[in-house]
Design the sequence.
């Protein structure tokens, strides 16, 4: 049974999971680090327990402490969310050993798919095409990888074996730059996943990143909920996702969907998962990897299918059959998600930290915001810079874009810099509107400045604004000085003033 | 109060007459200016047109974000302007650049040594924050001066990391 769920995560996804539990009447247990005492997920949950200091290694990655809290709270299920321990087989196993439900796949499936090398060989056996790369991926040393690289051919990618989210990923153009990149990839993977193992994969150029949402129950039913186009990335971090993909047609969707289902079945998959593909210019597709967890971008699929994926996850974790058959899944309209990050797009996308002093969320038709922040919340340097997801739905792709533009304009976040201006430029770019982009588009062919140049300029308005604000500030500081100059105390002054006006 | 406001090398002389009137290069404009929800969000109505914007103070001056564009400006009152003119120009070009941490984080590596010659755009420090490694680059060519931090050190925002002469 699932009656009390411990959510082993933080931020917007913890809030998302707690919401599903609330609707199902399931109790929730939050865990938090010292930096997150005032976080929204802690405030929303029925119970909350401290894990430890702010760094993830000492808090959200502490499996032992989380299992202690499972026992202490009497939770009978755990939802891992994404990131942190979500793709750790030992976490799923620890839950099994404890006799509680892990809301996700079996440890064996996480092991098979979580280790990107095993995943590749498993799906190859099931007849699915993969991107060429290092076949035998275990603990290959730098020497081994350097020897294998020329055989795969450049350009190639170094990827973290335990990875996801672009962390520990490096692009290599030549053998000369490879040793240094291996070092930094391993370092980043080690700090993000606690596992510094990496492997190599050929870089498919001009490719789109298309993924399929999978849902599977324990009775052998596996369905897909259509695709998501996640090609808009920067440094291998997804920025914008949309469904349906502008390049998808019914026939291709059916074919890719069938392969995705087959890949999931190859590891006896259960619960929600995502099969990632690269789709080249000629519509050839290659299996990239499977994410054995809920995805950040799952809401866009929810918008077009009407299916609450988190609730469905809990349903199948309870041992029930899926509520839907493949033919029940209908895609209606189009949905786009923009990841709102605390980064300054005008300053090399440097992360921005600080206290959120004001946050005005967009509302109105077709808008959804998933976030863990609120005015007064502190954005710390310890975790991911993503502070919110802005999701829109429209009857058509064009309507969804117009709605996203409107929503981005309404969204006001004060206290940290955000990448909202970047998203605004992207929504205005003709390439995006035409759906003509690949995974390199943002880095190589997109310029915020160029787009800004094409917009109408208001130099005088800008000059007036800057001057008025500067003037206001000067006036204010002048007043502070004047108050201090008063010889009598303020109380005495008020007394005199009142007597005078009697 | 009179100000000299500069945008992309163009100077505007702006006089704040009262709460509702400014003169820009001698032309009087009626303005309706309100601060929204505390500091950086402002609403300005000029000639019936409404401009909502973020206005930030930076080390170099002011940053205005309105209608999808960013403007970098400096605002000086007349006295400041005279003082600067008296001090002579060219100070900024020959000066030392102090690289400060733009955010709190961990120094992952420092690919340069003291005394190294660096090009504009060369990576000086790699700083990890929010699980991402960020490359801090040199805004100008020069020679690396004193390095004030070590690899593996945790730094606070605005902490001085090194200088380029």
Sequence:
């Amino acid at each position: 049974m699932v009656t009390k769920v411990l959510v082993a995560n933080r931020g917007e996804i913890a809030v998302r999971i707690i919401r599903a539990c609330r609707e199902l009447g399931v109790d929730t247990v939050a865990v938090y680090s010292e930096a997150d005492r005032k976080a929204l997920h802690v405030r929303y949950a029925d119970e909350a327990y401290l894990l430890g200091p702010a760094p993830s290694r000492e808090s959200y990655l502490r499996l032992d402490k989380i299992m202690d809290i499972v026992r202490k709270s009497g939770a009978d299920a755990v939802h891992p969310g994404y990131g942190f321990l979500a793709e750790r087989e030992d976490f799923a196993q620890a839950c099994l050993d404890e006799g509680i439900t892990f809301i996700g796949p079996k440890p064996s499936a996480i092991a098979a798919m979580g280790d990107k090398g095993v995943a590749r060989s498993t799906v190859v056996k099931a007849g699915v095409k993969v991107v060429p790369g290092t076949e035998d991926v275990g603990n290959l040393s730098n020497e081994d990888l350097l020897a294998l690289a020329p055989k795969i051919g450049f350009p190639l990618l170094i990827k973290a074996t335990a990875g996801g989210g672009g962390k520990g990923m490096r692009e290599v153009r030549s053998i000369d730059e490879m040793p240094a990149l291996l070092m930094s990839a391993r370092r980043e993977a080690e700090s993000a996943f606690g596992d510094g193992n990496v492997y190599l994969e050929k870089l498919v150029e001009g490719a789109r990143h298309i993924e399929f949402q999978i849902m599977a129950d324990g009775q052998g039913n596996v369905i897909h909920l259509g695709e998501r186009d996640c090609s808009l990335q920067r440094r291998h971090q997804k920025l914008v996702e949309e469904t349906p993909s502008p390049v998808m047609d019914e026939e291709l969707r059916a074919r890719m969907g069938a392969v995705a289902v087959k890949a999931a079945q190859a590891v006896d998959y259960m619960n929600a998962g995502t099969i990632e593909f690269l789709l080249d210019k000629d519509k050839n597709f290659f299996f990239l990897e499977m994410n054995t967890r809920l995805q950040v971008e799952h809401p866009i699929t929810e918008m077009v299918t009407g299916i609450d994926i988190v609730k469905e996850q809990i349903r199948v974790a309870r041992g029930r059959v899926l509520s839907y058959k493949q033919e029940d899944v209908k895609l209606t309209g189009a949905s786009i998600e923009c990841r709102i990050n605390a980064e300054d797009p005008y300053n090399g996308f440097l992360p921005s930290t600080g206290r959120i002093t004001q946050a005005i969320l967009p509302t109105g038709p077709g808008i959804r915001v998933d976030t863990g922040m609120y005015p007064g919340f502190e954005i710390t340097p310890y975790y991911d810079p993503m502070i919110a997801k802005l999701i829109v739905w429209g009857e058509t792709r064009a309507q969804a874009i117009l709605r996203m533009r409107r929503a981005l304009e309404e969204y006001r976040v004060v206290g940290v810099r955000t990448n909202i201006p970047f998203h605004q430029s992207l929504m205005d770019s003709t390439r995006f509107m035409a759906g003509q982009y690949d995974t390199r588009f943002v880095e190589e062919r997109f310029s915020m400045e160029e787009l800004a140049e094409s917009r109408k300029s208001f130099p005088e308005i800008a000059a007036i604004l800057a001057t008025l604000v500067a003037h206001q500030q000067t006036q204010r500081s002048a007043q502070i000085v004047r108050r201090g100059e008063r010889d009598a105390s303020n109380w005495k002054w008020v007394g005199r003033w009142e007597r005078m006006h009697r | 109060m009179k100000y000299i406001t500069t945008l992309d090398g163009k100077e505007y002389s702006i006089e704040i007459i009262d709460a509702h009137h400014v003169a820009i290069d001698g032309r009087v404009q009626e303005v309706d200016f309100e601060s929204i929800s505390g500091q950086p969000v402002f609403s300005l109505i000029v000639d019936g047109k409404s401009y909502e914007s973020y206005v930030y103070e930076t080390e170099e001056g002011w940053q205005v974000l309105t209608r999808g564009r960013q403007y970098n400006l400096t605002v000086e009152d007349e006295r400041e302007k005279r003082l600067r003119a008296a001090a002579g120009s060219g100070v900024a070009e020959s000066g030392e650049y102090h690289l400060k941490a733009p955010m709190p984080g961990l120094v992952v590596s420092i690919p340069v040594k003291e005394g190294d010659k660096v090009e504009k755009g060369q990576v000086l420090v790699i700083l990890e924050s929010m699980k991402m490694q960020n490359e801090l680059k040199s805004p100008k060519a020069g020679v690396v001066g004193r390095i004030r931090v070590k690899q593996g050190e945790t730094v606070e925002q605005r902490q001085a990391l090194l200088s380029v002469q």
Observations:
- Chain A touches chain B through 52 residues (CB under 8 Å).
- The first strand of chain A starts at residue 4 and ends at 7.
